[in-house]
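Hey L., structure's done. Input below.
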Amino acid sequence: MRMPLTRRAQGLLTALVVLGAGMSMLAGEALSLSKGQTLYVPVYSHIYWGPKPRAFDLACTLSIRNVDPHVAITLTSVDYFNTDGKKIRSFLDKPVKVLPLGTKEYYIEETDKAGGSGANFLVKWAADKDTNPPIVECVMIGVESSQGVSFTSRGRVVLDHPK
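Output:
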């Protein structure tokens, strides 16, 4: 004899089924390995606020995280561009190795207004063999008087280098 489920039990069963389906989809995802990429990372050296557009200056930290536990990656260029797409600065004179699970960071001061609200980084990296691509993010933060703001933007692959 089958007994009817209470609403709570039905809800719990539904949640478990949905969770299980989500977990199986995640487990079924193939890792996308690469030997190198070019990534575009949005940066905001200031944002606008208020009834009349007023600039709120931000400090920016570009974080490049090698998430592979076994393979080092090499940063071949880290370039900073302004709102008009003009290169302002290259952060690397020579390639920089990022060890497995290591991180490199590059900083734009809050007083550096050269980038503007549409600034960006182009980050190029390479590896000797297929590896997990790094996580590349920019953290923006600003504090003025009693106001503070912080947020992140994530890099997007614009070119996957040939294998």
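Confidence is low (pLDDT under 50) at residues 9-26. The first helix runs from residue 7 to 28.

-- N.
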